[in-house]
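Project standup — Tuesday

K.O.: blocked on the structure for the chain from last sprint. Re-posting the sequence here as requested.
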Amino acid sequence: MKKCESTLQFEENYVELHEAGWSVSEIAEHYGISTGHAYPVIRDIAKKRGVTYESLLVQPHSPRTAVLSLRTLRRAKHVDYSKLEEIRIADAAEWSRVLEGTEEILKNWPKMPESV
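H.V.: unblocked you, prediction finished:
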């Protein structure tokens, strides 16, 4: 049976994406195949690599925060980066005002007697 291009790409890249923290459903969605179709392909990958099927399903113990999931990538497409930059600049200015105010308060703070 001849495999379609999306299935071949899924098969070729599954292990790398899985080790990077992507879930089976995220990888399947990325390549446009159903999860029902993905699981038999994962079984074939396991046989070809000489590993257990289960080992290709278990999420690795790596910090997920360092990995961009497919959903995160999709959300990022809708971000207005110019607006984000304006917010970052405004936040930096606000923090500068807070720090200046804190320094002023500390300068005027009553000194503790040294004998205490």
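K.O.: great, moving the ticket to review. The longest helix spans residues 81-108. Helices lie at 5-19, 24-30, 35-49, 70-76, 81-108.
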